[in-house]
Specification:
Chain lengths: 268, 357
């Protein structure tokens, strides 16, 4: 336990004065007799990419689910922007500004790029058309979608009227990430965003993550892929057996160290 | 082959040494290559109503050449009247099929609703508008039951509506005692949907106009409102829709309710069309409505299609039946032709869906 605190201090040293945008304190979540989370704390600072790694069953997904409202922790507190939050369902977290890109990509293949970006929060036309006839503002949404994609540096997706099913895996991921990053979200959570992608497409997605960070949107990245994690992450939260084993940085630790901490072969 | 066995290392190493990216590029180039055929497919994929439109135009030309009575205004008017009831039911069917469901009970609900409208006004002597309102309540109630079973009990729509089909058929016969109510006994409002008026030499019935208005309204809602997009998204991939923040069950429920309301309108049109309310009418309208939807290019897998395609599909069936009967063929050949149409339409849909991924 003292090790953890020491390594935490080292990892956050440059930004000690900053306050975390998202902070979880001593989260506990049990499923029957199985302990998913055993008092896990996590801090996400503005403008950083925090990777969460861990072996299967280490509690990564449970931790992320608690942060994004998909699960309700039994104990512990979550603070967003310094204020305590209680998420009961994913919509609560989204409303508070935590956007999640799920592993299975929540996009609708037959709808076009713009419609997907605005799916579930369509904008309506002004005036009677919008208020009485509830007509959506297709032109406006397409325009905004294009602007959003350009701002994110997604150059491969210029035509927002293309159905998503005509896109490659990387482009679909870009649509999903763009949707999470749009709409003034405070935190973007990406669950295994490169798991199903090829080499080149993975690089595009990693570039996208850097762009998000450069725009000031902090990112939590869950990944099994060590090279990807060490490529983009500023800090790395290592889960092991339902606890935070350490928080390290790519500068102070190597990939081998990270795997050793993850598997319990070494302590941080 | 012998080289492989004798020198496994040498034979195996060159492919491994190759940079993986070049293979990837080659593969992508191969996928990106477009042929005229794949471009046609992409276009059809984007505008699914094109193929039924082509079929309808060709059918009208061919039948017009075969028999000069076919293009006679009176005959065209007859086709629209024959299509009115199926066309209306097919709007409801389209909504449900867009959500990747299917409704076998549309005909039964329509008949039950028409019997309630007729009985409450003729036997019970209620005012006609109240009778129509009760018919609407029956439609909504049936939709609510189907929707409840699909969304709450998570039963497949096929099974749910197979069950409710039988329930509604039985209820109709129990309620009506198997007796037909003749149009002459009804207040004028109920048979008003059968009233004709003349536009440019062609007779239209009020029922046909109501059906067309229904298409305009539903097409507008599907294309222009958030609800419409959500219907497509739910049919496309319900899990994705849920993760995007759409309340999938609420959308499904609203679709079944909307379908129920449309079926009640269909009941009114049916009373006007047949000038009666018969408990034995419309037994096979469920399959006819599915036929119209499928020929209209809407995918049975959900998330793809338009009501305009369905209107074209209903008209194609109407034109084929009418044209073949004018050509003097046995009525069974009409059924045969409809069967061929369905299979061709679904094959085309399958082919279109194999669009480059």
């Amino acid at each position: 336990m003292t090790d953890t605190i020491a390594s935490d201090a080292a990892a956050t040293a440059p930004g000690e004065s900053r306050t975390p945008i998202l902070r979880a304190r001593r989260l506990v979540k049990t499923f029957g007799r199985v302990v998913g989370l055993d008092g896990v704390s996590l801090e996400l600072y503005p403008g950083e990419v925090l990777a969460v790694i861990g072996d299967n069953g280490a509690g990564k997904s449970t931790l992320i689910k608690c942060l994004t409202g998909a699960e309700v922790p039994d104990e512990g507190e979550i603070f967003l922007d310094g204020r305590q939050v209680h998420f009961k369902r994913p919509q609560d977290a989204r409303a508070a500004g935590i956007e999640t890109v799920y592993q299975n990509l929540a996009v609708s293949p037959a709808l076009d790029v713009a419609s997907n970006l605005f799916l579930g929060r369509e904008e309506r036309r002004k005036g009677l058309l919008g208020s009485v006839f509830r007509v959506v503002d297709q032109k406006g949404m397409r325009h905004k979608a294009k602007a959003e994609l350009t701002a994110l540096g997604i150059s491969t997706l210029q035509d927002v009227t293309v159905p998503v099913e005509n896109l490659s895996g990387g482009q679909r991921q870009a649509v999903a990430v763009a949707r999470a990053a749009a709409f003034g979200s405070k935190v973007v959570v990406l669950d295994e965003p490169t798991a199903a992608l090829g080499v080149r497409e993975s690089n595009q997605v990693l570039e996208l993550i850097r762009n998000l960070r450069d725009r000031g949107i902090p990112v939590i990245l869950i990944s099994h892929n060590m090279p990807h994690v060490f490529d983009v992450a500023d800090r790395i939260h290592v889960q092991r057996l339902g606890k935070r084993a350490a928080t390290i940085t790519p500068q102070t630790h190597s990939m081998t160290d990270a795997v050793a901490i993850m598997t319990g072969a070494a302590r941080a | 082959m012998s080289q492989h066995t004798t020198q496994p290392a040498a034979a195996g190493s060159p492919p491994q040494g190759e940079p993986p990216t070049s293979a990837l590029d080659l593969a992508e180039e191969f996928l990106d290559r477009t042929t005229p055929l794949s471009r046609i497919r992409n276009t059809l994929h984007r505008y699914p109503a094109i193929s039924p439109a082509i079929v309808l135009v060709l059918a009208v030309i061919v039948f017009g050449l075969l028999n000069d009575r076919f293009l006679n205004p009176a005959n065209l008017s007859l086709i629209t009247q024959q299509v009115a009831v199926v066309g209306t039911l097919a709007v409801a069917q389209t909504l449900i099929i867009l959500t990747a469901g299917i409704d076998l009970s549309v005909g039964a609900v329509m008949v039950l609703s028409s019997m309630v409208i007729a009985q409450t006004t003729v036997q019970a002597g209620l005012p006609a508008p109240l009778g129509l309102f009760l018919g609407l309540v029956v439609g909504l109630g049936a939709g609510a039951l189907n929707g409840f079973l699909v969304t709450r009990l998570k039963l497949p729509p096929f099974i749910v509506t197979l069950g409710t089909l039988n329930i509604f058929v039985a209820l109709t016969l129990l309620y009506s005692g198997g007796a037909t109510v003749r149009g002459a006994e009804m207040p004028e409002l109920l048979t008003w949907t059968g009233a004709t008026f003349n536009v440019l030499g062609v007779n239209f019935t009020v029922g046909v106009i109501m059906m067309l208005l229904l298409y305009v309204v539903v097409a507008f809602i599907l294309a222009k409102t958030a609800w419409g997009r959500h219907v497509y998204a739910v049919g496309d991939d319900p899990e994705s829709a849920r993760l995007a923040g759409i309340r999938v069950n609420r959308v499904l429920m609203s679709v079944y309710l909307a379908a129920g309301a449309i079926l009640a309108i269909g009941a009114w049109i049916q009373i006007g069309r047949t000038n009666a309310a018969s408990p034995n009418a419309g037994v096979d309208l469920n399959l006819d409505s599915i036929t119209a939807v499928v020929i209209g290019g809407t995918s049975l897998f959900g998330g793809r299609g338009t009501v305009w395609g369905t209107l074209l599909g209903a008209l194609i069936v109407g034109v084929f039946r009418n044209g073949l009967s004018l050509a003097g063929l046995d009525v069974l050949w009409q059924t045969f032709a409809v069967g061929v149409l369905i299979i061709v339409a679904v094959s085309v849909d399958q082919w279109i869906r194999k669009v480059r991924k």
